[in-house]
Amino acid sequence: MIKVNCLNPIAKVGMELLPDTFGTTDNFAEADAVLVRSASMHELDLPDSLLAVARAGAGVNNIPLDKCADKGIVVFNTPGANANGVKELVISGMLLASRDIRGGMQWVADNKNDENINKTMEKAKSKFAGTEIKGKKLGVIGLGAIGVLIANAAVALGMEVIGCDPYLSVQNAYHLSTSVKLVKSYSDIYNQADFITVHVPLTDETKGMFNRASFSMMKDGVIILNYSRDALVNDADMKEALENGKVRKYVTDFPNAATAKMDGVIATPHLGASTAESEDNCAKMAVNQIVDFIENGNIKNSVNYPALDMGPAVKKGRVSVCHKNVPAIINAITGVVSSENVNISDMMNKSRGDYAYTMLDLDDKITESAVDKLKAIDGVIKVRVVK
Fold first, then answer.
1. What span, in angstroms and rounded, lies between the C-alpha atoms of 250 and 82?
2. DSSP 62
3. What is the pTM of this model?
4. Are strands 222-226 and 247-252 parallel, antiparallel or unpaired?
5. DSSP per residue over 218-257, as a string?
6. β-strands 247-252, 265-267 pairing
7. pLDDT in tens, 290-347
8. How many C-beta atoms surround the C-beta of residue 212 within 10 A?
9. 58 pLDDT band (50/70/90 cuts)?
10. What is the per-residue pLDDT for 82?
11. Is 221 left (phi over 0), alpha (psi -120 to 50) or beta?
12. How far is the C-alpha of 242 from the C-alpha of 224, rounded, in Å?
């Protein structure tokens, strides 16, 4: 029985996808697989039994990726599963920033006891006038699953859309509206856009990318939407830009102690994926990835090991090896199997940075002695007999 530990509640529609050979456990120390949403795993002792961690969501800041990779624990996320939920929130953010909807709603709440409110509001409403988004230029930084949906939706709303993504995939490019103009650099977005929405991971390269220097390239009165991570923005520089009018509104789903106090900030408490549909989609994708990995050894949407898919395990034997990405290790792995007189009918190897993953389909089941020899190879992290 494969034991699955849930560090957070996972939607029922996902958990129902677990086969009969899988069961749940409340004991993290005995888990073969872990499903997690927001719980932090950085301080947890990772058990030797743990094979995989699946984050029911896109961000993985709560998971120690390198620590997991060093122990041969494959970490998955669910990119795109919550994309529509985030897209809809971004569109609402643009509308909230364009028109003072919040101010108007607050006026109604403050004047709810006015018996003539239907008349007095006609005089008051001019204070809450705004602008329309139709005809405005939206710059989309990051054209992954979320960015593509936002770009396409903005086109449908009559906006002029420009996008930039140095790592644009063929699949995402295929789904992108032909009305979206691709530009080569972020500075092209900064120079032209009335609205800028950012959908990139937090890395050393992107941390603080919205700062005094980038603001200086932008139009006066630009509206910035950040539904990725708060650290993409330099808070002190944002405060200055809001105060001097360079930035008209800063809309974020990641408020912090600094931005929550700033005038001109419209903030929501990380609601991007907080829809029943998104939670269901993330749960189903996370569970399916865990099951396919454990039953077949396939890796899809991992953030610390390479993608590798050999389909269902139909041969008599299948073995997976997590190892360091070093020279001659493939020869050592195949040499061990050959020395046991077991024929390798198929094989795949992929690498990602310092780590690599190899799967072997065999015409016979591998022996325990061969497994022990594989484990003894310098650079091998984990060996698993899938079948």
1. 22
2. T
3. 0.83
4. parallel
5. SPTTEEEEE-S-GGGB-HHHHHHHHHTTSEEEEEES---T
6. parallel
7. 999 999 999 999 999 999 999 999 999 999 999 999 999 999 999 999 998 999 999 9
8. 13
9. confident
10. 92
11. left
12. 11
